[in-house]
Amino acid sequence: MNNWHLKTAQTGLGLRRGMLDSLADLKDGDVDFMEVAPENWIGVGGKFARQLRSFSERFPITLHGLSLNIGGPEPIDIELVKKIKQFIREHQCPLYSEHLSYCGDSGHLYDLMPIPFTIEAARYVADRVLQVQDILGQKISLENVSYYAPTAQDMSELEFISEVLELSDCDLLLDVNNIYVNSVNHRYDAVEFLKALPGHRARYMHVAGHRKEAEDLCVDTHGSAVIDPVWDLLRIAYETFGVKPTLLERDFNYPPLVELLDEVNHIKEIQAICARHDLSVAGL
User: Fold this and answer.
1) Ranges of the chain with pLDDT below 70
2) How far, CA to CA in Å, does 208 sit from each of 32, 143, 233?
3) For domain 4-282, which CATH number applies: 3.40.50.1760, 3.40.50.1820, 3.10.129.10, 3.20.20.150?
């Protein structure tokens, strides 16, 4: 599993407790990996622990955290990081990612809040990323997040993301849906933004559905099917940065497994098309 990131054309699905019964019907080859939020599984015993083990014995399990609070004002929760490290070892998880945001201030805020786009904030976040990476003994990946209200902006969102990744030398979890959502809400060109990201740091990608509230407002929900403009953006991401392992996120409003696998298979189809194009360009 240590070579997981070298296998580029892979597709994944989020492992959620509300989907455990239906996911038990997964067949070998339906997906290449699964993803969990470690906070939802650390310390869990009994039936849930046995179910998690049944999946981690069949599929590589990547971790996508919810509460590291990498941009928050409170000190890093060292005990949580140590528990995540143990979880990584226990289940041989090839990758741990988190959100480039904050979610706590003297308590958990139960939402992902935007960090001010300033050089001081970028340095602050990078120092905290380095602290976490030092404890884990490995790089982490940070996800470009959706946000709805601008904060202090001495630099652009793109410049802020690039600065944090450069200062901390961490990887990027490229969330294609978040780019689309932000492009609608903050009125910028999604393709232009995507192509300007430091794609050489992209370790893997997320794709998901969202809710359209108005012509100029989208909400990142992970509760619906992926729409065509987001599929198009995923294709452009592959064409720009190469095919990367890609996960379909679905956090509620779970459809039948066959519908989720249809979306997973659509990822596979886009990957195959882009991979063939790369070979053709290379003359192979």
Assistant:
1) 1-3, 5-6, 103-112, 278-284
2) 17, 13, 12
3) 3.20.20.150
